[in-house]
Amino acid sequence: MLFLLNPIRMKWENEGMAPSADKHYLARILERRDISPDLWTLRVDPGGPFEFRAGQYATLGIEQDGKRTERAYSIVSSPYEDSLEFFFELVPQGALTPDLSRLHKGDTLLCRKIAKGRFTLDLRSGRSNHLLVSTVTGIAPFVSYVRTLYRDWKKGGSPMPGNHKFFCLQGASRSWEFGYREEFERYAQEAPWFEYIPTVSRPWEDPDWKGERGRVDDV
Prior knowledge:
Blueprint: E1 2-5, E2 11-15, E3 24-36, E4 39-45, E5 57-64, E6 67-74, E7 84-89, H1 97-100, E8 108-112, E9 129-134, H2 140-156, E10 165-172, H3 181-190, E11 194-200, E12 212-213
Parallel strand pairs: 1-9, 9-10, 10-11, 11-12
Antiparallel strand pairs: 2-6, 3-4, 3-8, 4-7, 5-6, 5-8
């Protein structure tokens, strides 16, 4: 089974509309981690009960001057975690990421109460080899998958029915854009069902990189 993901943002813009209390939480940022000048993660308290499956997305938004802008972002965290984690890339002329890039611990943003998306794991399809392919922030739902499977595996010895294997290929221009490389390498060292291969497409800008080179779709 092949899961191929590039970061895709869904778009909603609502002018002159206040956030609806029955549809939105006021989420609060608990932690920010800067990865590079244009990449960062946020961990947030959603502001209320928030159920989701690994691979789904949450809709985040900011309201300014009577205008609310919202986008959908894949959830990095596992459903087992108490907070929600997201991985962002700055789009300089984007409608939302420039504002999100200015947020820090303690700041607030809107979060719709219901997670959506069908990019979830199907472990009962009869296929046992799963290829996960992504570029930089597209790794987000795969982190959610692997964190969830790893937690189940550590608790019960087997995270899934059958003899499943997961192979994750991640591409980036330079190695410092791999926001979860160290975490995935730890899983790969410990879990026999998981392999992780990062590849850099601009090694001349990253001379210390010793791993795979080339675009992820060529590896």
